[in-house]
Amino acid sequence: MLTAILVAAPALSQEKSLNVVGAGGSLQTAQRYAYYAPFAEEFGVTVNEESYSGAMAKVEAMVRTNTVSYDVMQVEQDDVVTGCDEGLFEPLDWSEFGNPDDFVETATQADCGVGYFVWSMVFTYDRSKVENGPKTWAEFWDVETWPGRRGLRKTPKMTLELALMADGVAPDQVYQVLSTPEGQDRAFAKLDDIKEHIVWWTTGSQPIERLAAGDVAYSAAFNGRVSNANQEGKDFALEWAGQIYGMDFWAIVKGTPHLDLAKQFIAHAIKPEQQARFPEKILYGITNKQALESLPAETLTQLPTAADNLQSALPLSSDFWIDNQETLSKRFETWLSAS
Q: Are both 76 and 199 inside the same structural domain?
């Protein structure tokens, strides 16, 4: 998808353009409202939007062939680290963006990224069709009590963690178990239990669309997408038990011809007034402490970082996935292709 935000500006400014890549759907709508449009208006810049599924192969090809067309990207927590190590993203100096003490700690710890929102993987179902639905991942896996197709993200990351929690592993023990060959076998065996019932998704909008269409009965989904659907009139459950939460980052693609403008965009996007606009459109957490303090109490309680929502939560381990992504991705692909 490619869209552009155009604003009237002096002739010199009209030559400025920036290509920003997000995850599409309601998330990108919120980013347009909070970040893209205000930046375009204030600085007289054309912001060209694209969306992607999170795969880094295209980015790597651009950088290796010196044909970079992406400037700023939304990237997941482990990808910002591995991408930095592999030379795909520009190293960033926090002195160009603000005081690190003004942000939640994880947001400032990546050498090539600036953390800007906290998301959560939860599960959902249509309460207009299911009166008493599952409340835990173990119950989500119970296709006899709650029949119907299940939506899961088509990646080992988060999917294997969900399988272990469904098999009775406590959230604070998941990565300890998953770090062993026996634990990995256990996760894949648990996925075997519902393999024939799974409908895989690759973009954040798909589980909501499929749930609305009746293509799945229950689905893992990002919390903000579920909340947005409910704001638009749906009655989708949002089950926080066993949520997996993580952070997404702004990163600048190595070799962009618009490096200074890309840095200017990020610095603007993490200001308190810009970040405070983001949850107005999608209920993800934000990283600027001043912005967090300005949010209404009713908004704070609906974020992944609310105390009640964290009681049985699992923080996504970037360290684990940096070490194990390649091996487990290969095994996951082999498992998918097996009958």
A: no
CATH of the domain at 179: 3.40.190.10
Q: What are phi and psi of 323, to 5 degrees?
A: -80, -25
Place 8 in a pLDDT band, splitting at 50, 70 and 90. very low
221-271: pLDDT as tens digits: 999 999 999 999 999 999 999 999 999 999 999 999 999 999 999 999 999
Supply the range of the domain harboring residue 157. 121-245+311-337
In a shared domain, residues 37 and 59 = yes
Task: Indicate whether this model's pTM tops 0.85.
Answer: no
Amino acid sitting at position 247: M
Residues 27-30: contacts with CB under 8 Å, at least 24 apart: 27/204, 27/222, 27/224, 27/225, 27/282, 27/284, 29/281, 29/282, 30/224, 30/278, 30/280, 30/281, 30/282, 30/284
133/148 same-domain check:
yes
Q: Are residues 316 and 181 in the same domain?
A: yes
pLDDT in tens, 139-178: 999 999 999 999 999 999 999 999 999 999 999 999 999 9
For residues 185 and 326, state if they share a domain. yes
